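User: For my dataset I need records formatted as: sequence, then structure tokens, nothing else. Please produce one.
Assistant:
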Amino acid sequence: MAETSLDLGNRPCFLEPPHREFTMYRSGEPDPEFFERLWRATYRRAKRPVEGVLVTEDAAASLAQEIFENLLDRFKSRPSDAEFSAEALEAAHDHSRHNVSTGRREQEDPQLWHDPEDTRYERNLDLDRLKKKEKGGFSDREWNDLDPILRPFGFHLLLRKGLGNQDAEDVYLETFAELARERAKDGKAPIEAIVVFEEVIPLFSKMVQFRAIDWRRRQGALKNQPNTQSSFEDLTEREEGAMQFEDESADPGRDLGSLSFDEIYRQCGEILTECQWHLIFTVYVAQSATLGELCEDPEILGKLGLQTSHSVSKKRRILNEALEEALAKLQKCLLS
């Protein structure tokens, strides 16, 4: 089946709401190309919200349409392309995961909408059983089957970061126990933060990486310095000693390129100006214009203090400086 797309001409509710004047577009004209690209991206995110989850095409298309309609009703005037895109993609990610979780619970089938081509492990576990709390904590037998799933991923990361087998075993067991340890701030354990079982692997991998960094720092005789706490919560959230990443050698495996645009926008939304977000989105996300084309855009030039009469070299220099400044701010925000 061909990928579902947004037919703007046959969906008047997206562009011409009958009950109010439509002011979504600053130019007064619809932008089918932008909405088509964003529709496809939203549909794909709804279809695969997490690695290992594969929602049916009809369900993904229905959710994408609902998200678009809600956003177009919500915004009375057109937001920036970056803001609208981030809102749409984040909504697809969140709602799709919750729909999968609800479906699995109602049908009592942890495998519902699990990607059949995902061969990382044999089968999903029942996340509701993993989250089930007794007075003594998490004691459901489903936990017995979680270790064989997570151990290969944990050891791969730890050995790659230079830990020996015994040290890797110790750090792995500490991290596994941390999954079920309640945090002081909200009384919830990390396992309770995920919505679908497939999220347990990226969550555990992140926790393992933090603990591996902590181990390396302690091995470097930094026991009396900040950032040597032992719990995942301390390493990531405590204000007076949260883990810092300015030193690239602290975690050479950390890949900021794996973050999605909506995740970056959610974390750094207030860091950049609307113009900077527009440049980042246009050049790196939508890739809808080249630097040469931006040099001919009077609106962009005006926001950068340039005039159309300025030389091409000056325009390119100022544009590159603006992009470099925006990227530097994003990097600082994401690494802090």
